[in-house]
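Summary for the steering committee. One of the milestones for this cycle was to obtain a three-dimensional model of the protein with xanthosine-5'-monophosphate bound, which we needed before selecting residues for the alanine scan. The sequence and ligand used are listed below.
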Amino acid sequence: MQHQRVLVLDFGGQYNQLIARRVRDLKVYCDLKPCDMTAAQVQAYDPVGIIFTGGPNSVYDERAPRVDPAILSLGIPVLGICYGCQLIAHTLGGRVEHAANSEYGKREFSFIARSPLSEGIPEKSVCWMSHTDHVTRVPDRFEVLASTSSCPVTVYGSRAKKIYGVQFHPEVVHSQYGNKLLENFLYLICGAKGDWTMGGFVEEQVASLRQKLGGGCVLCAMSGGVDSAVAATLVHRAVGNALTCVFVDHGLLRKGESEEVMSVFKEKLGMNLIRADAGERFLARLAGVSEPEQKRKIIGEEFIRVFEQEAKKIGAVDFLVQGTIYPDVIESGKDKSAVIKSHHNVGGLPSVVDFKEIVEPLRDLFKDEVRRVGTELGLPDSVVQRQPFPGPGLAIRIMGEVTREKLETLRDADYIFREEVAKAGLAGSIWQYFAVITNSKTVGVQGDFRTYENVIALRAVTSVDAMTADWARIPYDVLETISNRITNEVPHANRIVYDITSKPPATIEWE
Ligand code: XMP
């Protein structure tokens, strides 16, 4: 491996992957490794710098994670963040104490002495704190570099030793110059050259997947979504047609999507892609069902059944590829709070396929990084920039029973909505936008005739993570065009309403 590497030692903090991600964004390769690495192992890894992450413990807890002190004498630059900052002080003979008040949230801090770490950062700025303990005395030959009104040692360090500690979280966006501080550490203190790119990630993943999967039979379930598409394309680049992809087409995708999956992945990329055309099967099972949770359950079960049938035709499988990304990893590690909706994804598949190992090549990446990998692999924007789409598809955008006619009406209305949003140049600023077919019919008049047809609702939201959302302020004239087009071009739709509810209290999807 030719590029420089930074080692991020994981002390169990909640932002650790985010630190790794910031380092990658600054074009430096890094790995997140367990904090119990020995100095010899660190030396063998040969990093240009080491970052100690935050963590939930106090250095005085009996079971608090420690670090091999010899790591601090290797001459390799070290940056300790939060717990990492306290641990360095504690290990090198400084003092850490329980603060009178925990600091949580934004705080103003001031640099009181300059160092390469503060290059280009104003004397006063805002940082993001989240701690109870703090350093009250720095080790010998270290200098206090910054403080807040309640945290006397917010930043400290030693130029000679190239070891620094910051009490706040530079990786969090609320730390105004956090990214600059990390950049300074990497470039001015570690001497990073910035030799790592997304292209590098792809190359490395392809090489390591090739080695790992070589000779095996590999299977992937594709949904048409970004994550499974990028994972499959990456694996395909590594092992070619040793990979078989199964695309369960439940007939509940948006207009043109199923065809697009086949055209991009089978025709253009030449993947060994099997489309299980199961639309009729899903419609039959959904007949007469209008309760949202029951619809979701049926679709989830049926999806697994169809996939199982297709997988059996393939025979023995060595590896099952999943498009798990980092936010999914955190989600699944969390305590389950109240179930609002039973989200459907491909998590149930492992139980129905015999295989040796699961492969998750995107496990460490955030969504926007996954999109960048997709672009790097040559996937079109229509796949890579696709808005989030629920596993149960249009079934949860059709209120009441799912029927062929309602599906058609919804598809056409939704297509016009998407087309006009794109034409108005709004696509990039709206998180999700789609049409819903309500369970209401109203009276209208079209060409002197009375009509009694469906009410179509338009839903468009802005959001950062789908946990909360606001309704998008689409200009009236754009809404007017959409309304005119739908009522003119789509049979069985005579009234259009716009949903002006945020989440909470509503959810993004209607069911
Ligand atoms: P809600 O409707 O709960 O949606 O505000 C939040 C986000 O999740 C998507 N969503 C789903 N995604 N399977 C999925 O993979 C599902 O069953 C599902 N239900 C909702 C929704 O589109 C939004 O982005």
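Key point for the committee: The domain at 404-498 is CATH 3.30.300.10 (GMP Synthetase; Chain A, domain 3).
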